[in-house]
Amino acid sequence: MNKRLKIRDFEVLKGFLSSDAQHGLLDDLRAVARVAPMRSPVTRWGKPMSVKMTSAGRLGWISDRRGYRYEAEHPDGMAWPPIPETILALWREVTELDREPDCCLINYYGEDARMGLHQDKDEGDFDWPVVSVSLGDEGLFRIGGTERGGSTESVWLQSGDVVVMGGAARLAYHGVDRIRFGSSRLLPDGGRINITLRVVDL
Ligand code: SIN
Ligand code: FE2
Predict the structure, then answer these.
(1) What spatial distance separates the first Cα and last Cα of the chain, rounded to whole Å?
(2) Residue of 61, 70, 107 to test ligand 1 pocket, by largest number of atoms within 8 Å of CB
(3) What is the mean pLDDT of residues 181-201?
(4) In which region does residue 126 sit, left (phi positive, over 0), alpha (psi from -120 to 50) or beta (all else)?
(5) From the CB of 174, is ligand 1 less than 6 Å away?
(6) How many domains does the chain divide into?
(7) Which CATH number characterizes residue 23's domain?
(8) Whole-model pTM over 0.85
(9) What is residue 21's three-state secondary structure?
(10) pLDDT digits over 16-75, tens only?
(11) Which residue range(s) make up the domain with 99?
(12) Nearest ligand, measured from the Cα of 12
């Protein structure tokens, strides 16, 4: 790890993963996406999201015209693949928890993808932290407070950075304004992958 930043209550572990670890994680995520293909979900209002996503774990996060929720199956009907052991090891190292995450949500950001400010609040218990890992191109991560419309600050997340959203950060607004397409060579065709590990507890 290069540096530990605390931005509001978000813990940002810069350079947490070595280059080898990033490549290993990427191979594992590709294997997940071969079983459970990435999809571009729509919002409740039918608007396509700019990110593509899939999940691993007991539950996967999905969005469609019925809303946001966790489901035990991919929209195509298969069970989500198990969370790769490398990712569970990372979770244990960062959180020091015995409880394993139920969901590893995998988001892919292409050139113009972004994610609006939101809270992660579809889980049943907000005492567990959410751990986020960034791979590939840099993304401008915006951090707010627990109220919509409050002040925010931003940090560029780079490949190998880990963010822990626990405690007061657990229900804080966050989002990704844009990525710097082509800024990393980890993904041969460019783009950014972010995974978030969540205890869903439903
Ligand atoms: C998310 O909030 O689910 C994703 C955050 C990120 O892409 O860094
Ligand atoms: Fe989120």
Answers:
(1) 33
(2) 107
(3) 97
(4) alpha
(5) yes
(6) 1
(7) 2.60.120.590
(8) yes
(9) helix
(10) 999 999 999 999 999 999 999 999 999 999 999 999 999 999 999 999 999 999 999 999
(11) 3-198
(12) 1
